[in-house]
Structure formats: C-alpha cells, structure tokens
Amino acid sequence: MNHFSPLSIQFVWHPDDSQAVVPIVNYCKKNLSRNQDNPFLRSLDFPIFCFTSKTESVPSPINIMSEKTLVFVFVGTSIVISEEWKKYIFEDCENENVKKVYIALNKYAFNLKEIEQTNCIRYEEHTAKFEDEMLHRRMFVDISHEVYRWLLESDEHNQLNLFISHTKNDINGVNLAKEIKEFIDSDTRMKNFFDVNDIQAGDDFNDTICENIKKSTLVVVHSNTYSSRFWCQKEILCAKQNGRPIIEVNCIDGFEDRSFPFMCNYPTIRFNDNILEVIELALMETIRFYYCDRLMRMYRENGYLIGVKTFNSVPDSFMINDTEEEVIVYPEPELYPDEYKILTSKKIITTPLSFRKSDIHNKKIGISISGAPEEDMGRLGQDSNNLKCLSKILAQKIIRSESIVVYGGDLRPNGFTQFLFEEARIAKFNRTDDEKILVENFISWPAQQLENEEIKKWSAEHIGICKFIRCTAPQYVNSITKSALDEYIWGRCLTDMREKMIDECDIRETLIKSSHYAANMV
C-alpha cells in the first residue's frame, strides 16, 4: 500500500472529558500542523485526526493511511465505567505500525489493568504544578516526546538527547544551561549532554563532543561571549556538518560585539524565565527535522525525487557548498525571492511542490470550496482547518505550475481570497513573465453592491496579481435594493457566477470533504 505520510496522529476522548481534553488537543494541533495564518513558516504538518462522540456511541474506527499511526487515548471516569468505550479503546489492532499511548486523566483510570500495566502519561501529576496554558504546554512536551519516539522507533532514538552547548565565560549562560539540564533530569523522560558531567577523565575532548552531537539536538545557549569561544564555534560547525537539528536560546545581556556567521538558519527563542518554552521548541524542531527526513525518503522511494540532494530543512550557503548534486530539494514552504535568487546562483533549489512541471501547466483551474456538515467531518476525525489546509496546498500547486487559479470569492481581508493573492505575489517574484495574471477572481453581483471603500482600496492594491471579474446582475433580477438581498436572490446570483466560472475553466476542483492525505498527494 502506498502511504501519503510517514506518520499520522490521532486523539481519542470521551465527550464528558472535553473540557479538560480539548484545550490540550488544540494546543497540540497548533504546534504539530500547518500554520493557517502564516503558510510561509517552517511549521510541522502532521495529518491529525480527532475522535470523540456527541452521543453515547463510540467514534469511528482508527483510520490507517500513514506508514505509522500514533493514537493518544485520554482515559477518564466515563470511559472507565463504559463497557462499550473500553472495548473500543483496548481493541487489539493487528497492524504493527499502530501504537496507542494512554493518558490517564485521573486516578480512576488506573483501575483498568491495561492502564495500570502501562507507563502512561499522567495528567493529574502535571495539574499539581501547572495550570492553563502552562499545563497545556507541559502536556504537549510529553505528547510530542512520544511522537518523536514512535516516528523513529529505534534503540538509538528511544529518548531524545539534547546537547546543551554553552560557554563558561558568562554566568547567565552557565546558570541557564544548568537550569535546562535540571529540568530535563527531574521533569522529563529525555536525556542530555552537559560537558562537565558527561566527559569522563581521560576521554578525548573533541571526539566525545562530536560523537554526542551526531546523535543529539543541539541547544545553543547564546550568551554574550558564546560566539567568540573556540569550542562553541566548533560545536555549531559539527552540528551543521552532520546535519543535526539546532535551536538557539538567546540570553544575551546587553549587546554582542560580533555573531559567529554560521549561527543562522535555525529556530531561535528569547529566554523569558520559562524552561518549558525551550524544551517545547527543541522537541518541535527535532520532530520537524525527522518528519521531513521520512517524507523526503518516501518521495525518493516512490520515484519522485531521483538524482537530487534532499535536505530536512531550508538550505543555506554552508550546506550548499558541501553538495555535489546540481539540484537540491528542501521541505515546504519556498524561500522568499531575494534569498532564493542568491542561493540559486550556485545550484537549482526547489521544494517538492515545485520540483516537476505537471500536466496542468498553463491551464485555468477553478476551485470551489464548500464546508461539509460538522457531523460528517467529525466521523472523519477532521474539522474546517483540514479543508483550509487542503485548499491552500492545491492553490499553491496550481500557481507554481504556472497555471491560473479561478475562484469566486468576496474580497474580505484574511480570507482564502487574500491567501491566493499573497501566494500569487510571491510566485510573481520568481517569474520572468511579470505580466501574467495568476488569479482570476469572480465576484457575484450582490457582493459588489456591499463593497466599502476599504475593500475597494484592497482590491486596487492587487491589480496586476489578479484579474477581477465582476458579474452583472442576471436577467431575471431587476432593480434590487440591499434590503431585498434575501437568500433566494443571493443563491440565484451565485449560481449565475459559478456558471460563468465553469465556462472559463479548463479544470474544476470541488472541495467538499477535506482530506489531509489528498493534500500530500499533490
């Protein structure tokens, strides 16, 4: 079976536990799935499904379409006393690539032998120390560590190892490094490398450091003199040369005379007395790194990326200089135009979406979006965000294939129409044909009547990016005032607009029920 993702994540809970569970699930989804508001961020993009029930019956069966599936089951009192739910969550799955992780919401969960015999995640232990967003973040650390472990599933990667890189010249950097280490040791199931504790007498300093970096995520504690220290520079270079995940925790007090030029192209966080933020970022970057590695491997195995060099992150000049292949493919999203032009002077650099010209080149492709009933989406374990994600990925593919997106959207800022325009604007920077219109936006007759001055200015701003086609009133609609714009008139005018759009399209896609896997197929 061909899979469309290395790993999918599923959350399962009883509806009675929604008040405690939903905020945790939403926090996890925010960190582990594509950022809808800023599609140009290097965010994670796991297929995520949520299964609960609005009735007494249990949710739909587990959906297995990825190479691996990780199911987090929140177990509270209502599941403990329900035979139907217990049968559902403890049902044996014959697929060895499916793993269930149980999250005990209270002490009653341990009355079930399956929970008692499992080293599960313990929600109540964290509620004693944390609350609100900090509690959600603490739960995310446990959940994301299990994602890391199941994504890699090997003895070497049974626990995430964080290499804490710091200089002993700055007391604030030393104190922060110790604080990170103490939190990892006392409050997580992760490991760490801290040179004072982990380099034994008689060990070769250089060899020990490099060997540990090769199997770790590098956490750079960036204090005032870090950039100028020999061993700190060496640790950065070793991590880059061996393709390791890196994050930076900035704790500079005042200013830095000069940054080390290779300290770049990785996530950075300003330390604000919150160690959990640091651990969270380290986990997210490590998971993103390995997920992209698995995704690129799947592309190669399916014959899509042949004879190219693939990276797990956006390339920089340091990475490119050590690459023999002429073509480099890196994970979405694409670089901004100015950075792209500098890097492509040496190599051909692209993303999987832009790697090959497709058969849709130079076609007019219409997109129509209609939300499915919430009940149907729930059975699929999805919500409206999946539809938004799929719509945006399809639009990106169409625009990058030098085709024209035909859409019938009103001109509301922050809507799907604005996303189309922003994607088209970025694409135009990388084109030689600056005159080509990339989006044709149809506007129904009633919507035109409601445009205010702000929307008119916003429309004028995108001239050259988009061709606006304002439909005239249908013949059967006479003089109509705003007060008469009832549902019937709106419906008839929208039908007229869609018929005109169909006449203009070579291909038409109708998105009703979303599928994250369909997005990965593009």
Overall morphology: globular
Structural category is alpha/beta
Give me the number of helical elements: 20
- What percent strand? 15-25%
pLDDT average, as an integer?
A: 83
Could you walk me through the main structural features you see in this protein, from its secondary elements to its overall organization?
The chain is an alpha/beta fold and 522 residues long. 41% of the residues lie in helices and 16% in strands. It is built from 20 helices and 18 strands. The radius of gyration is 26 Å and the shape is globular.
Layout: helices, strands, pairs:
Blueprint: E1 7-12, H1 18-32, E2 48-51, E3 68-75, H2 77-80, H3 83-90, E4 98-104, H4 113-116, E5 121-122, H5 123-127, H6 132-152, E6 161-165, H7 171-187, E7 191-193, H8 195-198, H9 205-213, E8 217-222, H10 230-241, E9 246-250, E10 268-270, H11 275-301, E11 309-310, H12 317-321, E12 327-329, H13 337-343, E13 348-350, E14 364-369, H14 374-379, H15 384-400, E15 404-407, H16 416-429, E16 439-443, H17 445-449, H18 453-461, E17 466-470, H19 487-504, E18 507-511, H20 516-521
Parallel strand pairs: 1-2, 1-3, 3-4, 4-5, 6-7, 6-8, 8-9, 9-10, 11-12, 12-13, 14-15, 14-18, 15-16, 16-17
In a nutshell, what does this entry contain?
By secondary structure, the chain is α/β, with parallel strands linked by helices.
Short key terms for the protein model shown above:
20 helices; 18 strands; about 525 residues
